[in-house]
Design brief:
single chain; mainly beta; 48% strand; four-stranded antiparallel beta sheet; 4 strands
């Protein structure tokens, strides 16, 4: 499986939002072609 991630940057240096574009397995019926991924990180 291959994906392309685009990360516009961290928001307030805590939350990271990524746009994910799938490059393979696009012919499968239950596959999302585009999506969002979010993560949180705390540095002390």
């Amino acid at each position: 499986m291959r994906k392309l991630n685009i990360e516009p940057g961290n928001i307030f240096r805590i939350i990271s939002l990524d746009v994910v574009k799938r490059l393979t397995y696009l012919d499968h019926p239950d596959v999302f072609k585009l999506g969002l991924s979010a993560s949180m990180e705390f540095d002390l």
